[in-house]
Amino acid sequence: MALSSQLNSWAPRVLSIVRIVAGLAFMVHGLGKHFGFPDLGMVFDPGSPPWIAGWIELVGGALIAVGLFTRLAAFISSGTMAVAYFMVHAPQSFYPAVNGGEAALLYCFLFFYLVFAGPGPWSVDAKMGRS
């Protein structure tokens, strides 16, 4: 079997692994904003944009991690990161490495990809026949 065939056969499972890791990492941002773990060193006023984003990060990250309503959660999360990038990071500098927006940019496009790629085989959506 050619190397590309072997790699292609693993692609759906690797998609699931990437989705799980990204969802958990995203969820940690929401945990920090709302429950102080990890301590982000900031307090956000209820109803403020970072407070709202924190709930999207927490709930969206959890849904993405387990693969439940993955496409919808990824779409909302992608949009949230686009808004965060353009409202918070882009005004500081054009370059993501300078404006600190690399994570927001990467989450935005990774979640956008999941909207189209779906959750992969290791997901609640797949178990329910909704992949």
TrEMBL record:
Q: Which domain of life is it from?
A: Bacteria
Q: Where in the cell is it found?
A: Cell membrane
UniProt KW Magnesium keyword: no
InterPro entries in UniProt = DoxX, DoxX-like_oxidoreductase
Q: Does the keyword Transmembrane helix apply?
A: yes
Membrane topology classification: Multi-pass membrane protein
Q: Which UniProt keywords apply?
A: Cell membrane, Membrane, Transmembrane, Transmembrane helix
From the record, give the transmembrane residue ranges.
12-32, 52-70, 104-124
PANTHER family registered for this protein in UniProt: BLL4328 PROTEIN, OXIDOREDUCTASE CATD-RELATED
Q: Which family does it belong to?
A: Belongs to the DoxX family.
The entry's protein name is DoxX family protein
**Classification lineage:** Bacteria, Pseudomonadati, Pseudomonadota, Alphaproteobacteria, Rhodospirillales
